[in-house]
């Protein structure tokens, strides 16, 4: 019972930090789209949000160790998913997990739809996570 509660608490912490980091990512990408029309005050607030978002991204990358089953080799989460999409990582699900994050949470909200840089897995490398 105690282990179950600890696992549940860890899962909730990881989900909460994903939500916080993703919300900040959405805000920073929105500011990026409108940066040319921002006044100095808004631009300064945006830079503060960018610094806070970078910190959250770093913490999320560390917490994502539980999902990717490997310690981070990069400072930010995007670098991790780019490496895993390109075939990096020892676990066979690292690549499809990285593809899922890029296709569902990062690329759709990035200007031009290109937040993640690596190519999609093909052939025997592709593993479908959809039911």
Give the arrangement of secondary structure elements.
Blueprint: H1 2-33, H2 40-63, H3 65-68, H4 77-85, H5 94-106
Helix pairs in contact: 1-2, 4-5
Sheet bearing the most strands, described?
none
Q: What is the rounded Rg?
A: 16 Å
Question: How much of the polypeptide forms β-strand, as a percent range?
Answer: under 5%
Question: Quick check: average pLDDT?
Answer: 87
Order of helices and strands: HHHHH
Describe the 3D structure.
This protein is an all-alpha fold and 131 residues long. The chain has one domain (2-125). The chain contains five helices and no strands. Helix 1 (2-33) packs antiparallel against helix 2 and helix 4 crosses helix 5 (94-106).
Give a quick precis of the structure.
Helices cover 63% and strands 0% of the residues.
Task: Name a few traits of the molecule.
131 residues; mainly alpha; 5 helices; 0% strand
